[in-house]
Automatic annotation (TrEMBL), chains A, B:
The lineage of its organism: Bacteria, Bacillati, Actinomycetota, Actinomycetes, Pseudonocardiales. InterPro entries: ATPase_NBD (IPR043129), ROK (IPR000600), ROK_cs (IPR049874). This is ROK family protein. Belongs to the ROK (NagC/XylR) family.
Amino acid sequence: MDVGGTSVRAGVVDADGALLDTAHAPTPRGEAALEATVARVIGELAARHPIGAAGLALAGFITPDLRGVRFAPHLSWRDAPVADRIAARTGLPIVVEHDANAAALAERHFGAAAGASTTVFVALGTGIGAALLIDGVLFRGAHGVAPELGHLRVVPGGRPCACGKSGCWERYCSGTALATTAVEMIAREPGLSPALRRLVVDDPGRVTGRRVAAAARDGDPLATAAVADLARWLGEGLALVADVFDPELVVIGGGVSASAPLFLDDAREHYAARLTGAGRRPLARIRTAQLGEDAAVVGAARLARDAC
Amino acid sequence: MDVGGTSVRAGVVDADGALLDTAHAPTPRGEAALEATVARVIGELAARHPIGAAGLALAGFITPDLRGVRFAPHLSWRDAPVADRIAARTGLPIVVEHDANAAALAERHFGAAAGASTTVFVALGTGIGAALLIDGVLFRGAHGVAPELGHLRVVPGGRPCACGKSGCWERYCSGTALATTAVEMIAREPGLSPALRRLVVDDPGRVTGRRVAAAARDGDPLATAAVADLARWLGEGLALVADVFDPELVVIGGGVSASAPLFLDDAREHYAARLTGAGRRPLARIRTAQLGEDAAVVGAARLARDAC
């Protein structure tokens, strides 16, 4: 199950990573209401399939035993023993995992990272979710919170971020960032993109990353420049991560990765140019994720299978 | 053996990490001359002790099999099969390792990182050398070059670096950086430190990190401010590394760590303040290295013992 801020989406996944059935519901506020909803959606699928265990993927800090949620910015759980509570409601073994970790594991077992050794998974969506794999095993760090790549300061003197810092990677490299960049560019050069400008005048909130990417695919020069800006910062941020982690493979996932053909070659060039010791060390391969929006569900199921 | 840009220093190390004897020589230019010197110094010790194997620690890119040197900025070797060449000259099994990796391993087995799980080792010297340990094992990345922390861009809009980037961590957090910061401060406020200013007027090169640290220990206000600047960037850079690697422990080594009491508490506060999710995740411990300048020699010997 992918427990998101607006909806919970669950799937029945077999041993080969195939998604056999799905169910979903809106995400309620309040811990008990959320637990009731999660249990009800699992129960709906359990009524139709023999289910051995369930994994919950969510954006937040998970306890090292994969049973509790310390903090999840878009959910009601705070220092909550989520696995025990859902297990009590469903009678199933439950594990909890960071959604980017779950998605990365799915890509490793069934997708773009199959067979790779040291891998960085970067999901570009509303923000950045990230995961590290070493020889197919998730690297969780000492406190189970690694990595927090979205708030690496990649852009000197950059946009302020809700986290209190500025120039954070996800403020320049995400669906939200793509929209922000386009709106900034329209303010500077209103004539460059009449189509996007009409949206801004109407309501800047209507300029979304998806719409900017679509305009870029249609050849809109301003949207193309906004995507090129994302490509630049994607490459620069990956170079920074590589200086710490030296991956063999980088997998780009999340909703924005659907537009990867627009920016991945550019990002590769920026990455190669900014890497410390460029020219004297092998470059990581950079690939697009293969499992799309189902990755977190498939990965959570895989974890549940292993843990139970 | 620690193969440095100005001298090679070798030691005989027993199974408990104790240094029994030492020998050294100036570092010559040219591959063959360097190999002859390394072999001669090893031979000098082998004449006095029964030696089973030798490890060479150096600053540079090492091949994944720990037998070759791809590139070492201060040494003549370029894509050189160093282990085979030294083995042919000495008749001993030889391994080669990055000097920060060797020092980190020594601290893990015999020093400040004993028993620690996920550890970041940062050596502050002329530049920054760094190493990562996961459960006592060196993490080398996919290409054996992780981590290159000295050139992380930590300071937005910061000093240009010889690597081609700007704001690199080691330009603000190293012995060299401490001197640079002091010289910049003297230019802005000449009256603040008559003692250091006399050095600058004479020859700015006489302001060294060691002298600035000594002046700070004596209460010099400008030197104290320069050390506080180093502490700030040490904390900020460590927060960035922790966002990727989430360590349990950070060990600060290198020559500058002799002055750690002047800056480590400040650095801890900056680290805690800049960490993503500060207040919602456990903090890494930050400690000073224990083995001093012998760390690389002791670690290289430990590796040689394991590898042979």
